[in-house]
Design brief:
Layout: E1 2-6, H1 10-21, E2 26-32, E3 39-42, E4 45-53, H2 60-85, E5 90-93, H3 104-108, E6 113-117, H4 121-129, H5 136-151, E7 154-157, H6 160-168, E8 176-178, E9 201-206, H7 215-225, E10 231-236, H8 242-251, E11 258-261, H9 267-275, E12 279-282, H10 296-303, E13 308-311, H11 314-319, E14 326-328, H12 333-345, H13 347-363, H14 366-381
Parallel strand pairs: 1-2, 1-5, 2-4, 5-6, 6-7, 7-8, 9-10, 9-12, 10-11, 12-13, 13-14
Antiparallel strand pairs: 3-4
Helix pairs in contact: 1-14, 4-5, 7-8, 7-12
Length: 391
């Protein structure tokens, strides 16, 4: 696997663990985020880290240079490793899409290559750097998307909605598999929803701190709601908005209400904290990118029996009804505050919504998604006699 991110990246880790469980060997070529060793083995996965460090919030030119530099280094590293390891399948994880060309050395030897589309890059680019989907810059991004998917033997994406979008752009539906980002049951074991018992209702939000995810909307909503109900809010994550959110908490005098952490938490620490929350919040703004994403944090709240307040989008409405989550319009601070107060005052409503939402977890467990993923990888390897290990 090749990924321009630090390991463990949640999706890369889940897929790697699924293959390891089937008896396969998995190597990951990735970047460094700190002082990790250049090579180590984590739970059976061999990690090779490059000299490039992953940074957030870079300008577009610097971001493109970083993408290109890592792709070139990854291609060289793959050439070196493939000479001795003789990989059966190579999988590249976007963004960027053109990271797939780092797999060129394996392609030359006839190995199948897979592009895993965590995000649709034209929408991601338009959201992050601005511009219309029919603008010339986004058209260039769509061109590299077309070349990248065309170079791959197979593509994977995370929702039916995004596969539909790719099909509308002219890609072959049969060459695109959907493997959803549902939580790994070994880490996010499904829990029965519970009635909160504390005097203060605990509200939780975790994930990347960036403008499109609307963390400032949640903070301002908490400022409106705290005078109506006793609240404790847990914010956890990293990203370019950490300084701005820190200042906003100070300006609104919310230091006694909001616990804001950007430390690294283990999976156990994160799941334990989510499990103690009374309400989980997904306050995403709505744009061409966020309208199509199914937030991983929402699926984690649902699996752990935590009722959720969610900014409405096409992707969430495809999988969750109004009886499963409490929807609000994106960017509406007052509506978000009202939703927090409503759920905080009605424990039975929280319980009912959380139970209804777990129908999603029953329908889309990671075990099913992992089986679909490993079946695809084994089928791609099978023509060369390198499919599922023989028992």
């Amino acid at each position: 696997m090749i990924v321009d991110n630090a390991y463990p990246d949640p999706r890369v880790e889940r897929e790697a663990r699924a293959l390891i469980a089937r008896g396969h060997a998995v190597d990951v070529i990735c970047v460094r985020s700190g002082t990790e060793p250049r090579c180590e083995v984590i739970e059976g996965v061999t990690i090779y880290r490059g000299p490039i460090r992953r940074q957030r919030g870079m300008s577009l030119p610097r971001q493109l240079v970083e993408y290109a530099s890592f792709t070139i280094w990854a291609a060289a590293k793959l050439t070196q490793l493939h000479a001795s390891r003789r990989y059966d399948v190579v999988q590249a994880h976007n963004v960027p899409d053109f990271i797939i060309f780092a797999a060129f050395p394996a392609k030359l030897t006839g190995r199948p290559i897979v592009l895993d589309l965590h995000d649709l890059m034209p929408e991601f680019f338009a959201s992050r750097f601005g511009g219309r989907m029919d603008g010339w810059r986004v058209r260039l991004v769509r061109l590299q998307e077309r070349l990248s998917i065309g170079f791959a033997d197979h593509a994977i994406t995370v929702t039916d909605l995004w596969r539909d979008s790719l099909v509308e752009r002219g890609f072959d539906r049969e060459r695109i598999e959907v493997v959803m980002n549902t939580p790994d049951e070994e880490i996010y074991a499904r829990r029965e929803p519970r009635l909160g018992s504390g005097e203060r209702v605990t509200v939780m939000h975790h994930g990347t701190m960036t403008h499109r995810y609307g963390i400032d909307v949640l903070v301002r909503a908490v400022s409106l709601a705290r005078d109506r109900i006793p609240l404790r809010v847990i914010l956890h994550g990293r990203g370019e908005m950490v300084p701005a959110i820190t200042r906003l908490i100070e300006e609104l005098d919310l230091a006694d209400t909001i616990d804001f952490s950007n430390d690294r938490w283990s999976s156990e620490e994160l799941t334990a904290t989510i499990g103690r929350a009374d309400i989980g919040v997904v306050p995403n703004r709505n744009d061409v990118f966020t309208d199509g994403i199914l937030p991983t944090k929402l699926m984690e709240y649902v699996a752990l029996g935590v009722p959720a307040i969610v900014a409405r989008s096409s992707a969430t409405e495809r999988y969750f009804s109004d009886e499963m989550v409490r929807y609000v319009e994106p960017g509406d601070v007052e509506a978000m505050a009202d939703a927090i107060v409503e759920l905080a005052r009605d424990p039975e409503l929280r319980l009912r919504r959380a139970r209804n939402a777990q129908a999603f977890t029953h329908e889309h467990p990671w075990t099913v998604e992992a089986a679909r993923y490993t079946r695809l990888i084994e089928q791609l390897a099978a023509p060369r006699g390198r499919g599922a290990p023989q028992s």
